[in-house]
Sequence to fold (175 residues):
Amino acid sequence: MTSDDTPPKPPSLAEEWTETWENESTRDRVYTTALQLYEPTRVAAIADRANVSKETARDYLQWFTEIGMLTQTNETPDEFVRDEDYFQWRRIHRLRGLPMEELEQRLNTLIEKERRYREKYDAKGPDHVDALDHADYADVEDVWSELQEWKTVRRRIEELEQARQNHDNTTQASA
Fold:
């Protein structure tokens, strides 16, 4: 408390962000920013977000492109975007490290969840659902949110199944 008994002012979001970046290495700042590149983004904007020079950002972005994490979508000016295939490969690779029983348990849980969505919406998949058919205007965002969750469930089922199949192949190859 201050001398006039008023509580101290909490730090602003910008101050919190600056404090967070101060504890990060340059590579980590560019990496964290690169993880959020869902749309093609210019090097200057990336450098600004990561609080680094354009040259430094460009060097790291080109390296992330070489390892497959990013795709360069334009050269003049340089623009980069996440390579979703790379991130899917990473998720599947990590899942392969789980025991087969856990993979199957997760897969069965998600398959059941997907079955409940099919029954609830009486549809083959989330792309076959018109949200307005299942909610009035005030509740349509809830339906959209569920449909996005359904898409996520389906993606996870595919990834778990790939990990399970690769897990089997790895086990058979080492036997």
